[in-house]
Amino acid sequence: MSATSYIERYQSIANELPGYNLPWLNAVRQLASGSFEATGFPSPREEEWKYTNVTALEKKLFAPSSISTPSTIDKEWLETHVLADTWTLVMVDGYFDSKLSDLVGLTDKVIATGIAEALQSHPDRVKALLGTTLEKESHGFLAFNTAYFSDGAFIEIPANVKLQKPLQILHISTRNEALANTRSLVGLGRNAEAKLIETFIGLPNISYLTAAVTEIHLAENAVLDHYKLQVETDKAYHFGGVYVKQDKTSHFYQHNLSFGGLLARNEIHAELATAAECEMNGLFLAKNRQHVDNHTLIHHVEPHGISRETYRGVLADRARGVFQGRIVVHPQAQKTSAEMNNRNLLLSEDAEIDAKPQLEILADDVKCSHGVAVGQLAAESIFYLVSRGVDRETAKNMLTFAFANEMVEKIGLDSLRNKVQDHLLNIFPQTGIRRDWL
Amino acid sequence: MSATAQTIEKLISQEYKQGFVTDLETDTIPPGLSEDVIRIISAKKDEPDWMLQWRLEAYRHWLTMTDPRWAYVDYARIDYQSISYYSAPKQKEGPKSLDEVDPKVLETYNKLGIPIYEQEFLAGVAVDAVFDSVSVATTFKDKLKEAGVIFCSMSEAIREHPELVKQYLGSVVPTGDNFFAALNAAVFSDGSFVFIPKGVRCPMELSTYFRINAANTGQFERTLIIAEEGSHVSYLEGCTAPMRDENQLHAAVVELVALDNAQIKYSTVQNWYPGDEEGKGGIYNFVTKRGECRGVNSKISWTQVETGSAITWKYPSCVLKGDNSIGEFYSVALTNHRQQADTGTKMIHIGKNTRSTIISKGISAGKAQNSYRGLVKVLKSAENARNHTQCDSLLIGDRCGAHTFPYIEVKQPSAVVEHEATTSKISEDQLFFCQQRGLSAEDAVSMIVNGFCKEVFKELPMEFAVEAQALLGISLEGSVG
Q1: Interface-testing mutation among B390, B404, B416, B428, with chain A (most A C-beta atoms within 10 A)
Q2: Reported pTM
Q3: Distance CA A235, CA A57 (A)
Q4: How far apart are CA B404 and CA B399, in angstroms?
Q5: Residue B57 — left, alpha, or beta (φ > 0 → left; ψ -120 to 50 → alpha)?
Q6: Which of B409, B426, B430 to mutate to probe the A interface, most A CBs <10 Å?
Q7: Fewer CB within 10 Å: N-end or C-end of chain A?
Q8: Chain B residue whose CA is closest to A370
């Protein structure tokens, strides 16, 4: 098993991993490392990884970057990825970079820093949050991440604090053949409110692995808008998991925008307490030989929870898209309302979509539904546009754009929405569209 | 609501009416499975050597396999050495006519309401009755012969029509297809064989009635239906078993082959003994059913009403090879008490313009678990393939579960695939509406459940609708309250 080569590499830099001097953290890492050694990266034999094969990772052997050799990043290039009017935390190759980050004006009450730093300054806060959302989870990537995370963001917003500006975590990869392994922890106290954007980018043309796990804990009544914008390079491998634990009446609105990466796996899992609300919106576009796998899981463990899930996929060329959505309604979770919807557009002969929407319902007084559709652009719609003088290619682009844009319009953040729409217009070029119409 | 609760209680406590045991002398081989046992079975059935070899090959393959654990069902491991693989009512020679069949067996079928006596028959359904391991009677043979239809037991087919059996047996479900199919191939004892020649529309409904009677036996039957070019057949299947405390295994294989323009309609009313309220006893129903639309414009339609069995593990599937072929799956699965069902279908679209429809209705009551598991796969070659899937679940009581596990794999951009699923309980509004108009809680629920299943019931042939409705009376209403 070549997982061992990863383990060996990490053992050699064990003393660089944050919190190596903390016995409790070492114990957690040891346990995870043992479990990773036993299982390796997930295999397609595992039901939840049925459609995604990551054996390439074991062959490629990405090397963990070391903090002692910092990269230089072109400021101008960086600026294009920073959203206007946000506080930013920048991770470079898996390490928090305080010089590139911008937290000016953020209230003292909020902790927003790298996890390595937080382990120094607030070790008990980290201990209280680490791993709490992963109790129901287990697979090779999570064990790998727990065992060897090099850094990540630590954000704690105390009760009753409402952030005035969105927070952006910018994950940047700068080295070829390198791997960035981050664990981010986000905690919102009672009635706290925030908007959080996680962006994943890499320097052009490099191949690398991102393994990013974000744990989010929402206390009673907290509200979090979470956006994940994954625009890795087209040679990158991306594993990104977001695991959320929602206390009662909390709200979690998630937007998962997955456009980049050669192979990308997005996991968004949430566990809902009484009357919590969860919304998951997803848009994935893949072309050439891209493979994108979206895995969502919602546990309704207490009554009156509400979840709404809408995913759309557009697959072109030889791309393969996967949507696996699972809703589990536990026996106590009466009066749950859960909806899941997934629509996919196949644009080429060689594209493929695999969808696996699952409902597991163990309570009777519930309303649950799911729907999946796979199809192509309606011939009538294309004809309509062509008959009005639009050329066929543009007509198709317009319709595809419209299909995807319905998801983009749900984004409540102007700066991000514009950025995503620009991105879409690049992929589906169309003449005559006026930017200000959107 | 207490009225409804009471009704539920009352109906749930309905007993299984087919649970009697027929006391008769049987020829049963001792429990255990080995190559020798397979040789004995084969010898008892007077089979040619190629058949024995086929069985042994399946058995050797089976030894290398492990039983599937992915289904949403929970049961103790089965000890395959404690099962007897062959049991037959004792008789000197194979019955030449009905008069020679043991009267006790006939009585059993009469009790079950299965018309073996042709003269008693109005609608005209040809019945093949399978008792434990062997086929005891097949009716209307002569009339079918006139039309050129072969309808007989599998053992007879192996003797009389070896060329057809050789050509088609295992061609849809290969011996090593899955654990239970391999086991079945090794030890299958009987089953029905149907051959509809070119251009023939089978003059009557064909039906097989399966009855498990002996204790500690497994029933392994194998059904093969071949519809040649332009032919048409409708086939019905029913099953019951006595009430016993221990679990019994039923691992059947059904293969359907439809050539150009042929149509096969396969209906099942499955009412094996489901076990008692505490989940003690009952049949493990592990069945592999698959139809292949080999020819253009062919059609295979599965309709099933699954009310019995402690565990149901069954996925009647269609392989849509021929261009323009059609696959259909209509299912009502009811689980009550501690029953567990993991059932659904597979639609594999290979040919151009292939279409499939899946309508699945799951009803879960008591402490039962009911899962729909389905695969819709559209291969690259299946241009303009079309699928519509609808699976709805109804929950009755707060301790049961209903689950949906659809798999959708599409490699063809011109395909249109839709999947919809809902899960809910009977709405208070609907109940109130009915009761307020003078219906009792029981009738109201029964009406709503009937409406819920209507889409599937209307697919059942007339002759079976009666039985299905009677079953609804016992099991469906029963569980729904």
Answers
A1: B404
A2: 0.86
A3: 12
A4: 17
A5: alpha
A6: B409
A7: N
A8: B421
Q: What is the mean pLDDT of the segment spanning B462-480?
A: 56
Rounded to a whole number, what is the distance in Å from the CA of A263 to chain B's nearest CA? Answer: 18
What span, in angstroms and rounded, lies between the C-alpha atoms of B109 and B35? Answer: 33
Q: Do B70 and A349 touch (CB under 8 A)?
A: no
Question: Across the interface, do B380 and A349 touch by the CB < 8 Å criterion?
Answer: yes
pLDDT in tens, B302-324: 998 888 888 899 999 999 999 99
Shortest CA distance from A315: residue in chain B: B413
Are B450 and B471 in contact by the 8 Å Cβ rule? The answer is no
Residue A169 near residue A198 (C-beta atoms within 8 A): yes
In one-letter notation, the amino acid at residue A177 is E
For testing the chain A interface, which of B423, B427, B430, B480 should be mutated: the one with the most A CBs within 10 Å?
B423
Alpha helical stretches, state H, B26-130: 35-44, 49-63, 103-112
Partner residues linked to B300 by β-bridges: B264, B327
Q: How far is CA B291 from the centre of its chain?
A: 13
The reply to whether residue A371 touches residue B398, judged by beta carbons under 8 angstroms, is: no
Query: Alpha helices, DSSP H only, in B120-215?
Result: 141-147, 154-160, 162-168, 179-187
On whether the CB atoms of residues B479 and B334 are closer than 8 A, the answer is: yes
- Greatest CA separation found in chain A? 71
Which member of A369, A374, A376 has the closest CB to residue B422?
A369
What is the DSSP pairing of strand B134-138 with strand B125-131? Answer: antiparallel
The whole-angstrom separation of Cα B14 and Cα B4 is 15
**Subunit contact A353:B422, Cβ cutoff 8 A:** no
Residue B473, helix vs strand vs coil:
helix
Check CB contact under 8 Å for B410 and A367.
no
CB contact under 8 A, B403 and A375: no
Tokens of A182: 């981050």
Answer whether B424's CB lies under 8 Å from B396's CB: no
Could you tell me if A352 lies within 8 Å of chain B, comparing CB atoms? yes
ipTM over 0.90: no
For the packed helices A140-148 and A3-12, what is the interaxial angle rounded to 10 degrees?
A: 10
Distance CA B260, CA B479 (A): 43
Tokens 């644009």 found at: A347
CA dist A433 and A429 (Å) reads 9
By Cβ distance, the residue of A331, A367, A374 closest to B408 is A374
CA distances to A218, A223, A365, B262, B280 from B365, in Å: 35, 38, 13, 39, 17
User: B399 to chain A: which residues are within 8 Å by CB?
Assistant: 331
- Chain B contact for A364 (CB, 8 A cutoff): yes
Cβ neighbourhood burial of A21 (10 Å; 0-12, 13-18, 19+): exposed
Q: For residue A268, what are the contacts with CB-CB under 8 A and spacing of at least 6?
A: A228, A241, A242, A244, A254, A256, A280, A282, A294, A295, A296, A297
- The per-residue pLDDT for range B142-151, each reduced to its tens digit, is 778 888 898 8
Is the minimum CB–CB distance between A358 and chain B shorter than 8 Å? yes
DSSP single-letter state for residue B221: B
Give residue A215's pLDDT.
97
Q: Find the closest chain A residue to B363 by CA distance.
A: A364
The percent of residues above 70 in pLDDT, for chain A, comes to: 97
Instruction: Provide the pairing of β-strand B401-410 with A352-361.
Output: antiparallel
- Do residues B86 and B108 lie in contact, with contact meaning Cβ atoms separated by under 8 Å? no
* Owner of token pair 């980049």: A260
Report yes or no: A356 at the B interface, CB cutoff 8 Å.
yes
Q: Virtual CA dihedral for B302, B307, B313, B317, nearest 10 degrees?
A: 10
Instruction: Give the separation between CA A296 and CA A293, rounded to whole angstroms.
Output: 10
The residues near A315 (Cβ < 8 Å, ≥ 6 apart) are: A285, A286, A287, A321, A344, A345, A346, A347, A348, A351, A352, A353
Report d(CA A384, CA B382) in Å as an integer.
27
